[in-house]
Amino acid sequence: MTKTLPILVLAVVAASVPVHLQSQAPRPLRIISFGAHPDDAELKAAGVAALWAARGHKVKFVAMTNGDVGHFGQAGGPLAQRRYKEVQECARILGITTDVLDIHDGELMPSLENRRTVARLIRDWQADIVMGHRPYDYHPDHRYTGVLMDDAAVVVVAPFFVPDTMPTPRNPLFFYYSDGFEHPARFVPTMVVDIDAAAEKKWQCISAMPSQFGDKDSWQGRTRPDVPQSDAERPAYLLNLAKQRSAAVADQYRDRLVAIYGEQRGRTVKYAEAFQLGQYGRQASIEELKSLFP
């Protein structure tokens, strides 16, 4: 009897505490990241995705097009299937889920039907955080991914827009990936994330996409300068370029890293990914954002 008394006492005490004050395990975050093609979300957010996934949060990448013209020696269905398999391997490495929409590369439009699709994806995922391209970019698929994301920001909470899906309980946080475009507005980082702990997973993911970062006729292989012709040297060279991009983000936004992580850690971050809070989604203080990001 005496052994069970403390349990009974605790039960009585717990029952006397209002439900909203009782300690509850925090719900895992749900994050959805849109990329124009099968490799864009991986390049811009693989590190933070892996960090979130390692903490038990739920992350989904969505490629808005199937990437079926993003190669100089292959196209159509065979390339689309190849790129689908590559990003599924990335998803396995990162510990996330990835969808690829059946829209031809180069043909994404900011249509009402595509707005509905993006809204449904956000609502089906019940996303807390939505990420994607800014609507300022050299590539129309990138631009229109950003436009569609912006256009979906308000309607995801509207109960009678795409009523076949459940609205999100509140407007998610919307974030843009970093880029170097300055007109009509330059990228301004809100959160810069130290991805050093997940960098190896990001490099494994990029290495798993030879149609973009390995083949002689891959997009990077044909458009980047001084790419080696040797099949043995080319993948390592292209991977190193990707590493340099993440290192450049850390260097460019070093002051922001220091502001977020403190002087000691902020000065030593080698690789980073940066994100700008969009104005059309929910707004949050920097302290709340720091609690949500790894």
Concise synopsis of the structure shown:
The protein is an alpha/beta fold.
Could you describe the 3D structure shown?
This protein has 294 residues and is an alpha/beta fold. The chain has one domain: 3-Layer(aba) Sandwich (Rossmann fold), CATH 3.40.50. It is built from twelve helices and seven strands. It has helices at 5-16, 40-54, 76-94, 112-125, 140-155, 199-207, 210-213, 219-223, 234-252, 254-261, 263-268, 286-292; strands spanning 30-35, 58-63, 97-100, 129-132, 173-177, 191-194, 272-277. Strands 3-2-1-4-5-7-6 form a seven-stranded mixed β-sheet, sandwiched between helices. Helix 2 runs parallel beside helix 3 (76-94), helix 2 crosses helix 6 and helix 3 packs antiparallel against helix 6 (199-207). The longest helix has 19 residues, at 76-94. The radius of gyration is 21 Å and the shape is globular. Residues 1-23 have low confidence and may be disordered.
The gross shape turns out to be globular
Q: What percentage of the residues does DSSP assign to strands (E)?
A: 5-15%
CATH level 1 name: Alpha Beta
**Structural class by sheet pairing and helices:** alpha/beta
Strand order of the largest sheet: 3-2-1-4-5-7-6
Indicate the radius of gyration in whole angstroms: 21 Å
The whole-number mean of residue pLDDT values reads 92
Any idea what the CATH superfamily is called?
LmbE-like
Please outline the major beta sheet. 7 strands, mixed
- Helix share of residues? 40-55%
Number of helices: 12
In the CATH hierarchy, the architecture is 3-Layer(aba) Sandwich
**Total domain units:** 1
